[in-house]
Amino acid sequence: MYIIGIDIGGMSVKGGVVDQSGTIIYKASVETKANSDDYRVIISDIAFLINKLLQHTNLKITDVKGLGMGIPGTIDSVKGVIVYSNNINFINVPIVAEINKHFNGLPVFINNDANAAALGEHRFGSAKDVQNIVFVTLGTGVGTGIIIEGKLFEGKASAGAEGGHTVICVDGEPCSCGRRGCFEAYASAVALVRQTKAAIAENPFTLMKTIAEEKGKISGRTAFIAAAHGDKAGIQVVDNYVKYVGEGIVNLANIFRPDVVLIGGGVSNEGDALINPLQKYMDGHCYGMQNGNPRVLVKKASLTNDAGILGAASLVL
Ligand SMILES: [Zn+2]
Description:
By secondary structure, this protein is an alpha/beta fold. The protein has 10 helices and 13 strands. It folds into 2 domains: 2-122 and 306-316, ATPase, nucleotide binding domain (Nucleotidyltransferase, domain 5); 130-301, ATPase, nucleotide binding domain (Nucleotidyltransferase, domain 5).
């Protein structure tokens, strides 16, 4: 039996046919017409993509157990409605009903993309069969997915599990959500770039400046590369960034006490340079560590490029 996983992003819609073991048999993508006034344009592009996936794998729609979709934003998984997606022009879109207009009777499951990715890691990835997981993506924003006793926690109307919008600094940096001092405002890749820019402005001789000039821009990698070369200001930026991420994940770990905190998203590609100091931070700051509370492991998420498709497919399983 096969599953189709669809990952809707601001730039492209990726889709794949996945078997029960989590192997992607075939994948393809279409551009997301994110600025379209009519959401039906994107829906018909998704239908086109699904048909393409079926054709290339010689499958009929009746061979497919179900369709899972991971979507950025607030998603009502019970009603099958995209309540609001800020990356795409989707407001109150009954996407499950719309997909069923094209594929009548196909079971369709939708969820927030971070939630889907957390499930994907639980099914197929670096937290396979682990029962309690906090998944954190460090990308343009900070998304979180929470799995408790093997089940996704979503809260009322699926509006919960927004760990990126918990405050780590009262009256701090403004956040896209309207509050100040959110975890996201300090730990996203965008925030890391802002911190790097500020450090370059203060340290005209830092290696970060040379790296940025060579690459033509300041990115989330700039400070990590400089730090690896022993640049003092770069090390300072990375240390501060680790502290911000550390505070956010310690807060989440103190509430949920998961077996593991998984780090995904673009910044997680720094690997051990990020994960090792985060583990140390967690060991030093988690509640009750000195008194025998269990250790919370910090690991890099493993599904990387295919996380969206496999996460979406996991919604069906
Ligand atoms: Zn916020």
